Amino acid sequence: MAKHVFTRSQYLAILNESLKNDPRWQPGMAFVFLPPGASAADASGVGCTGPDAALPVYVEIERVAAELIEVRGEE
To answer: What whole-number distance in Å separates Cα of residue 31 and Cα of residue 35?
Structure first.
């Protein structure tokens, strides 16, 4: 199955939307570009904020996204 292609900004938005729709979401949890404050074009990756105990939630969302999405640079 072909993956859907999105920009880095779109990918981050999809991750955060998926996170907010997860029943385990708590205020303060978010996906962010790394290093902190980086723009989509300058980001070296994606990280997360929030409690360490939420790491399994982030990992699951990123795993599913990786199966469905291909990320290309900003246009």
So the answer is: 12
Bridge partners, 34 (sequence order): 45
State the Cα–Cα distance between residues 46 and 12, nearest whole angstrom. Answer: 8
The per-residue pLDDT for range 25-44, each reduced to its tens digit, is 999 999 999 999 999 999 99
Q: Where are the alpha helices (DSSP H) in the chain?
A: 8-21, 55-68
Cis, bond preceding 35 (omega within 30 deg of 0): yes
- 3-state percent helix, strand, coil for the chain, nearest multiple of 5: 40, 25, 35
